[in-house]
Structures are given as C-alpha cells and as structure tokens.
C-alpha cells in the first residue's frame, strides 16, 4: 500500500460544551483510525475588527486550503456590532448548500419512527441578502433575492446528492403562488435540471403544505430542496422530528470546500461538566468522512452511534440517561467495527 | 324577551365538497337554533373581469355590510391571469389577522395529545406585498414590507385575543437576527404593546426554533403571533399536529368584519358523494358564533363535535371511519345540548 497523506481538517471547538464534544469526536475518530490531522482554530465571542468579524481571515483561508472544517457550537455576542458567524462563513466561503439528513434513531423516543429525509437549503440569498432599509419611518423594505445561478447550483446539488445517495425523490418547496417571479424562478430552474435526472421522481410542493405534511406524516419525504429562509425553518422542524438539534448533523458545502457543524447551542449550564451529548457534532463529522471518500470509517462510526443509542445503556442527560460524555464516547468506541 | 333580529351571514359554499359541507353546517346551526340568516354568494372558477377577480364586488360589499362571512373550499383556476381569492379578500376587506386555534381532539389519532395553541398571523404584508421584479434577467427582487401600523394591529389583536380567551402567554415569532430592521420592527412593536398586558407572559423566539419546538414538544406554546409568511407556514404546520386541515378552524379578521373559512381543499375525488368531513368549516362557524357573542350556541356545537369525534362511532373516511357526511351531521346534532 502507498503511504497516504492524512487529510487536514480545521476544527473549531467553539464555546460552552464545544471543547468537550470536540474532544469526544477526536477520540472516536482516533479509535476508528481516521486518517485526519486536526488544526484547531478559534471563534471569538467579541468582534475582532471594525467589520464585526468573529473569526480570523486566516481561519477562513485554512478552510479554503485544507478543504474541510468541523465546527462546534459557539456563543453569539450580546448586542449589535458583529456579523453573524454562520452568515459570514457562508458568504466568504461561498457555502451555497446546507445539507441536513434526518433519520429516526432507534433508542430516541419521538412521535415518529420512520423519518428518513434530507433537507437541502440554498444558503446564500433569499431574505438573507442583508439589504434592508426604512423607506419612511415605520416602513421597512427587505429585499428577497432569488437568482438563476444560485437556483441552478442548489438544484444541481440536490439531484447529484440524490443520485449519489441512491435516493428516489426530490421535492422542490416553494411559495410560487405568491412570489410568482422569485419562487417561480426557483421551481422553474429545479424543473429544468430535473430533466437530466430521469431516474429521480421530481415534484413541487408549497412550503405551507410541506410543513403540514411534515408534522402529519413526514415519512412521505425523501430529498427536499428549497430557498434559504424556508430551509432555515424546515431543517429545524425536521430536527425536531427526530429528537432535536442535539442529534442532527449539518454540512455547509461550496464547490471547493465544506464546513460541517453541530447546530445546537453551547449549553452553558452543563459546560465543562462532562454531561454533553456529542452526537450532533459526531454525525456531522461522519458526513464529512463520507464526503472525503472515507466511507469505511464513516459507516463504522455511524453504526457505532446507532448501536449505542438503541442499546440505551449509555445515554446522556438530554436523552433521559445518566451517562457522562466520556461514558458515551467509550460506548461508541466499543461498538466500532472496522 | 325582546325579539332580536337575526344576524345575516354571507355564505360562500365554494366548490367540490364545499356545498355539501356547507349544507351540514347550515343543518347543525339550525338544530342549535342559531339566530342566523344565510345569504349565498358565489366564488368563480374563472376570472370575471380584466383584473382577474374570482369574486364579485357585491359579495365583498355584502361581507362589509353584514360583517360576517363563512367560506368553504374553492377551486383555484389553472394557469395565470387571476388574482388569488384569499389575497384579494384580505386586501379589499383589510382582513389583517388570520387566527387559527389548534387543539388536540380526542378520537383523532395523532402523535401529540396536548396541543392547545392559537396562531395569529399578520395577513396583509411581508413577502405578500406583490412587489416583485427582475433587476436583470435571472435575478429577481421581491420586497418584504414590514410596517409599524400593521405590526401594531396584529400585536394588539394577539394580546386582546389572549386576554379575552384567558390565555397566559404570547410568543412573537421572528427572524430579527437576520432581518434586523424589518423583523426587528415587528418584535419591538410586540414588546411595546406587551407592556399594556402585564398579566400575559410575553416572549420572543426565532421562527426556526419555534418550528423545531413545534415538532418536538408543541405543548409549550399558547398564543403565537407572527408576520405573514411565517404565519402561513406555522399555521399549516400546527394543523398537521392535530390531524390536518380537515379539522382546523380559521378566521380572517378586520376591524369591522370577518371571514371564517375551511382551509382544506375541494377534494374533487369525493365531491357529491356524501363522504366529506364538515368539521373544519363547522369549527370555523363556531369561531364566528363566539365572535358574534353567541357563546351558548357556539360552545354547544363545539361540545357536540368533540363528543362525536371522541365517541368515534360516526367518523368520516378521512378519519378512518365509514360514516357519511349526513351520518356525522346527525350525530353532531344528536349531541347538541342547549
Ligand atoms: C444564526 C442564524 C443566522 C442562522 C440562520 O438563520 O441561517 C441559523 O439559524 C442557522 O440555521 O444556521
Ligand atoms: C393560497 C395562498 C395564497 C394562501 C396564503 O399563502 O396565504 C393560503 O396558503 C392560505 O394560507 O390562505
């Protein structure tokens, strides 16, 4: 065998429980012999420059150079004068797609048991343009932008994702009856691109109907693609279906790099107490491994997580158990089968 | 006792199953001795003028004159060249608030059993401005408008509603971290008005978090107030929690008139077959009765619906039963206790 250079990954442990769940991920990855070298970078809790950034230029460049990042939860500054870290990263790294797989996990009690869907969110435009002003006092205009190139990017990403992951259906979620031009452009673009993927069933559905079905019978969905704001809402809604943000993986994808992330909070009340559940960050790391081509390690860790949760012996407090982060980490490591 | 003039109500039976469920409502109201005279008005399936209207000016005027309307499901024309009926009514009648109570119904199996919340949606602005254009080919701008007067109207309505209905909490749902000025204006206005209602607990929550909690533990919510598009999404999501649009009441409120409505579809596959479930339209009618001050009749019918559903002997096909619309109607009438 050739000696293969390790992948370098930028790790943002973040704040609160961030460092301990990051440590858990590093330990589990090491046990699974994942060929990764981590490079730790900081997220700041206060703006570090005039522009209000919470992250150094060199950290963003590291993600560009190494192609991979993994990000823990981080604290949002109080007050004004800072730029949202997520929005900054998405814009500067052109992370145009946010991908969130949601699958019911045996061992985690929720009202639903057959959820297996993926939300794919356009991550750069829509209501997130940042273009807002008061036309007269008391009347605010906000520009929602929908562009053909962004629609093409996200639509193609969704269909490629479906094809690669052997998924059968893509639904484009929209409100084109009301936003005829903007959301109209979105669905027309999705439709056009769908014709290149004849093996995948393509449908369109209004975002309100989508959310009604998600709370009534979420098992009807497979891959879902949508503009930014709908994606923000639906991806959290879907996380709720499988037990919450503590269990949900998330990936932000550009054409040349990607940042995977836990989307839950920093849980300051239990920070440093060895009580946090590292699952969301771990499964985000698993997504990254699969994208790197490290399928074997990715699936081995994923299986170990599923076994640990369904066994139910070492659950952390958020899942009604009493295990420490370390107990859970050891249990996952014990289930790794390479 | 004085002889009291009956209320006049504009009834739009609509299309598909609309006429038969409207008949069921009229029969049940008659059995409950509701002092109402109905005036039937038509919704058209094709535009009736150049502007693309689906409703006559005189019908809108009738709602203004009589103050009350009840609307069944209606078919949306295929293609372009018409104006959305709902949007037209909201604009022309200034129906600034959409109110949707969602309460778990015994006898209707859903994943949740303790839902008891009300969504209050601003009904006139936000992304529904209709202001859209392509700045250059392939780039569409849509104006999301948030204005102080509309925020005040809806916030005040929400707090008044909470007070009158003895509800404890109001949560304002927003995305002010991203739309700092627009959604910021919304929550600042809600907050200002909340100070006039010290007995009601006021909180603010991001719309994505709201939707996550709705799918995870919806029982935490009470009255929810929000801008137009979020309201469109959340009110359907909440309908899903209690069994779908076939069971959900809806009211559109102005300062001087109101239109109550079933928000489900026309179900053309079962139209005319005496199989439709009239519950959504009936409970919308009950909302109307309570708003008219006809509490006794309103509660009597509501109780009769709850009994009929929880008894489970005469359920229509959508709820897994075999009863006809007429069977169900008779059962409800049988349970009316004046
Ligand atoms: C923090 C906020 C700007 C962000 C968003 O709305 O995109 C968050 O909710 C997310 O989903 O990453
Ligand atoms: C038909 C459509 C324009 C409408 C809306 O989005 O408001 C509908 O979904 C509703 O909720 O009444």
UniProtKB/TrEMBL annotation, chains A, B:
<dbReference type="GO" id="GO:0005739">
    <property type="term" value="C:mitochondrion"/>
</dbReference>
<feature type="domain" description="Isopropylmalate dehydrogenase-like">
    <location>
        <begin position="8"/>
        <end position="332"/>
    </location>
</feature>
<dbReference type="GO" id="GO:0006102">
    <property type="term" value="P:isocitrate metabolic process"/>
</dbReference>
<keyword id="KW-0560">Oxidoreductase</keyword>
<dbReference type="GO" id="GO:0006099">
    <property type="term" value="P:tricarboxylic acid cycle"/>
</dbReference>
<dbReference type="InterPro" id="IPR024084">
    <property type="entry name" value="IsoPropMal-DH-like_dom"/>
</dbReference>
<dbReference type="GO" id="GO:0051287">
    <property type="term" value="F:NAD binding"/>
</dbReference>
<dbReference type="Pfam" id="PF00180">
    <property type="entry name" value="Iso_dh"/>
</dbReference>
<comment type="similarity">
    <text>Belongs to the isocitrate and isopropylmalate dehydrogenases family.</text>
</comment>
<dbReference type="GO" id="GO:0000287">
    <property type="term" value="F:magnesium ion binding"/>
</dbReference>
<protein>
    <submittedName>
        <fullName>NAD-dependent isocitrate dehydrogenase</fullName>
    </submittedName>
</protein>
<dbReference type="GO" id="GO:0004449">
    <property type="term" value="F:isocitrate dehydrogenase (NAD+) activity"/>
</dbReference>
<dbReference type="InterPro" id="IPR019818">
    <property type="entry name" value="IsoCit/isopropylmalate_DH_CS"/>
</dbReference>
């Amino acid at each position: 065998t050739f000696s293969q250079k390790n992948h370098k990954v930028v790790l943002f442990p973040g704040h609160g429980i961030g460092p301990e769940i990051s440590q858990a991920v590093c330990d589990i990855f090491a046990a699974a012999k994942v060929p990764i070298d981590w490079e730790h970078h900081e997220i700041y809790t206060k703006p570090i420059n005039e522009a209000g950034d919470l992250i150094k230029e060199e950290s963003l460049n590291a993600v560009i150079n190494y192609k991979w990042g993994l990000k823990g939860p981080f604290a949002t500054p109080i007050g004004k004068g800072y730029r949202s870290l997520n929005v900054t990263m998405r814009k500067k790294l052109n992370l145009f797609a946010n991908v969130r797989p949601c699958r019911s996990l045996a061992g985690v009690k929720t009202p639903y048991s057959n959820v297996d869907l993926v939300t794919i969110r356009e991550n750069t435009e829509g209501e997130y343009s940042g273009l807002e002003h008061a036309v007269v006092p008391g009347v605010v205009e906000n520009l929602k932008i929908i562009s053909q190139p962004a629609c093409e990017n996200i639509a193609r990403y969704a269909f490629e994702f479906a094809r690669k992951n052997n998924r059968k259906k893509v639904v484009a979620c929209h409100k084109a009856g009301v936003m005829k031009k903007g959301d109209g452009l979105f669905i027309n673009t999705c439709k056009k691109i769908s014709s290149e993927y004849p093996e995948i069933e393509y449908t369109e559905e209004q975002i309100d109907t989508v959310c009604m079905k998600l709370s009534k019978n979420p098992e009807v969905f497979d891959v879902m693609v949508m503009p930014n704001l709908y994606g923000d809402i639906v991806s959290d809604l879907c996380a709720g279906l499988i037990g919450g943000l503590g269990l949900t993986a998330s990936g932000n994808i550009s054409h040349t790099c990607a940042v995977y992330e836990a989307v839950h909070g920093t849980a300051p009340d239990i920070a440093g107490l060895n009580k946090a559940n590292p699952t969301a960050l771990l499964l985000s790391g698993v997504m990254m491994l699969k994208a790197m081509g490290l399928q074997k390690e990715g699936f081995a860790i994923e299986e170990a997580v599923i076994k640990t949760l369904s066994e139910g012996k070492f659950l952390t407090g958020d899942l009604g158990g009493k295990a420490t982060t370390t107990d859970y980490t050891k249990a996952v490591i014990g289930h790794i089968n390479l």
